[in-house]
Amino acid sequence: MQKHYVGSEIGQLRSVLLHRPNLSLQRLTPSNCQDLLFDDVLSVEKAGEEHDIFANTLREQGVEVLLLTDLLSETLDNTQARDWLLSTQISDYRLGPAFASDVRAWLADLPHRELARRLTGGVTYGEIPGHIKNMVTDTHSATDFIMKPLPNHLFTRDTSCWIYNGVSINPMAKTARQRETNNLRAIYRWHPLFSAGDFVKYYGDENINYDHATLEGGDVLVIGRGAVLIGMSERTTPQGVEFLATSLFQHNQANQVIALELPKHRSCMHLDTVMTHIDIDTFSVYPEVVRQNAQCWVLTPDGRGGLKRQQAPNLLHALEQALHIDQVKLITTGGDAFEAEREQWNDANNVLTLRPGVVVGYERNTWTNEKYDKAGITVLPIPGNELGRGRGGARCMSCPLERDGI
């Protein structure tokens, strides 16, 4: 039985979940990419090649790489999981009972790997068998989606995040990503790697409307020693932070949560696009956003099942206290003001730490990578000319399942 424990952002990475996108990227077009939260369309083949290089870089460093499509296919071998996923992703209320029933029956007969591809890549009206007809089909064209693609599954970090001895299965903020959560719920409930696992589900495993209490893993940094740092961004709300913090404390998995207020705009969509942890006392930051005067609170248990909230003087002070270190070192985005803004947009600060002082990042961010090198941080470079167009770097594209503490 695999041990599921993520004790830090920088301890030895042992196992990780990635998603190599294909069908969902094929369906990104200039007319739908904005709705699907992409700024541009990607070259599918090139993005796939770049993702393979990323996965192989991790494998060469001794990290076990699990792929979402494989896990989803294997989960669908369980009839209960397949029926639950089909009824959740293609509900009667979405398509109408008669049409939904026909579509579910057709999908249920597909080979499980093909069904997994559809659950992430989408289904169009033109793909269903000709005998399935009703008013819904009569009022749609062949290229309309019955089930939209999920290209953002590429960013496995967001949909679920492992924190110490448990996982948060995150209620996503944007409609374009909300169905991703159900794929992960099914995997963690029914896949043999997880179904008998001894881990906590902190938040997000219920089929309810979470309303404003949204949370995404790109905002959650497991900084270690019982502390968790969470950014309140355009995707993660104070309400979501409160639910997760309460659950972490109830299960005795954390002793404090540091909540940092971020600007609510796309260029710093998540905390990890402007800040990552790369060595015991060292963080990479984009200083335009991670400012001294940013509001920051420390949440601790109040002893009665609730939260005690205290405003911290600043983020660095809160980090030093939490990590028991004298001084936090910051490596800022490289180059002049223009170069730094470009490199932050291309995820120069969004690196994946494999062990203290060794990170994976996009090779194109030459100014920042040079600063890492000078600070004694080893960068394992990967190409990101296509992958980077999705506005996510190596950390965004990886969900650690097992990682040592510090």
What does this structure look like?
It is built from 15 helices and 20 strands. With 406 residues, the chain is of the alpha/beta class. The protein has a five-stranded mixed β-sheet with strand order 9-10-11-14-15. The radius of gyration is 21 Å and the shape is globular. The mean pLDDT is 91.
Number-wise, the strands total: 20
Q: If you consult CATH, what is the topology of the largest domain?
A: L-arginine/glycine Amidinotransferase, Chain A
Give the strand order, joined by hyphens, for the main sheet. Answer: 9-10-11-14-15
CATH superfamily of the largest domain: L-arginine/glycine Amidinotransferase, Chain A
Q: List the uncertain runs.
A: none
| Helix count, DSSP H or I runs of 4 or more residues | 15
User: Which CATH architecture of the largest domain?
Assistant: 5-stranded Propeller
Span of the ends, CA to CA:
23 Å
The level 1 CATH classification of the largest domain is Alpha Beta
Instruction: Report the radius of gyration as a whole number of Å.
Output: 21 Å
